């Protein structure tokens, strides 16, 4: 049993999860989705050691199936576009379990992470930077309420969409 019929939840990622996360990041399918291993390992390490990040293990049916984090974008310094508005958080996630892909788990996790950022921080917006070659990710982000801003040349992934979702109005 997998996918939509399972409960998807985000639990805090801990240092003890590092070997699991690192193993996932070493996989070619995850590298193709999220970027070169050295860069993604550094990114996750920075997030795990920061008080300005939400690091989560994605669970489906009680099983660890992926990783997600939301980071106050100012932490990345010059790594992100200069026109990124203050108060924007950068979101990243992947589903490592192939049997859980394409079944709504990533979409649910993305929605939960976005809601957590807006519910627990003063973030004005959240952003993502999927590769222009990763149409599946772009479509998933569109369904989650992200809108294209422009193409940005990511230093690790090359041409990427700069996509943004603003804080919901009350």
TrEMBL record:
Keywords: Antibiotic resistance, Transferase. The lineage of its organism: Bacteria, Pseudomonadati, Pseudomonadota, Alphaproteobacteria, Hyphomicrobiales. Pfam families: Acetyltransf_8. The keyword Transferase applies. One of its GO terms (biological process) is response to antibiotic. The keyword Transmembrane helix does not apply. This is GNAT family N-acetyltransferase. It comes from Hyphomicrobium album. It comes from the Bacteria. GO terms for molecular function: N-acyltransferase activity. Residues 8-168 form the N-acetyltransferase domain.
């Amino acid at each position: 049993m997998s996918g939509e019929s399972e409960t998807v939840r985000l639990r805090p990622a801990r240092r003890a999860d590092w070997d699991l996360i690192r193993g996932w990041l070493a996989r070619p399918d995850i590298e193709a989705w999220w970027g070169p291993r050295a860069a993604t390992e550094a990114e996750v390490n920075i997030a795990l050691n920061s008080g300005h990040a939400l690091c989560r293990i994605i669970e489906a049916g009680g099983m660890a199936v992926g990783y997600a984090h939301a980071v106050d974008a100012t932490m990345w310094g010059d790594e992100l576009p200069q026109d990124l508005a203050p108060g924007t958080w950068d979101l990243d996630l992947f589903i490592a379990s192939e049997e859980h892909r394409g079944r709504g788990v990533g979409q649910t996790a993305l929605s939960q992470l976005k809601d957590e950022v807006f519910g627990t921080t003063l973030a004005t917006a959240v952003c993502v930077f999927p590769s222009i070659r990763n149409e599946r990710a772009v479509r998933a982000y569109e369904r989650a309420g992200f809108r294209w801003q422009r193409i940005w040349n990511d230093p690790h992934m090359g041409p990427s969409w700069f996509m943004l979702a603003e804080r919901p109005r009350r």
